[in-house]
Amino acid sequence: MTKTMTYTQTTALITGASSGLGAEFATRFAARGANLVLVARRIDRLEDLARELRTAHGISVTTLSKDLSHPGAGAELRDELAGRGISIDTLINNAGFATSGPLVEEDPAVIASEIALNVATLVDITRAFLPEMLASGQGALINVASTAGFQPVPGMAVYGATKAFVLSFTEALAYETKAADLRVLALCPGATRTEFFDVLGSEDAAVGRLQSASAVITTALRALDRRKTPVSVVSGVGNRVLAAAAQRLPRPISLAMAGSAVK
């Protein structure tokens, strides 16, 4: 990848866009001139954000209220947008959630939904929009992974495993598409001050200092602005140190460290 990232006269699709990292992505892409498609279940929040961004930046913003966790959601979304004459240059797979606690105590239905949204939906939507993004050659595929993906995480076993999948999937896809003009990036935040911990029910699972959503998205944009976008980027110096250590230490040691860090 040798040319600069394009924003103006392109369209970015952002899932999980009603708050947190998704809303921050929307705000920052809008400021750079990109048109937006914002997808989440909470349409009232999407509409509020859309009005704000249209007024501030004079861009087009399409909002869609959808539960993406069912099979075939990617094709449905692609077909609906095609019917409106909208093609996608950049896809930001941000939708997802976490559960915590020993697996034996978790609700099977909830963890099934967690796997479906964090893994199956991300792959489904990526596959649905990848052909038009490759044809466009002006945008990026950004999958939100996590520092939890660098090692097993006892107490958040399912979440950590889903994010390890996202990281592995994105790295492989970057290799598959390396000859194309498409930036492919796995964004790996650590603990971030968003509604993530409200859904989780506690900040006890946070490891290290919480970052702001703005700081995390700044990391992503700096990666996209590089002439050669890295396949993955970890947000925050402390998080980068921990992620590097997890990859270099013997597996039993990194596992024990993660187990003691997550309360």
From TrEMBL:
Belongs to the short-chain dehydrogenases/reductases (SDR) family. SUPFAM superfamilies: NAD(P)-binding Rossmann-fold domains. InterPro entries: NAD(P)-bd_dom_sf, Sc_DH/Rdtase_CS, SDR_fam. This is SDR family oxidoreductase. The keyword Oxidoreductase applies. Keywords: Oxidoreductase. It comes from the Bacteria.
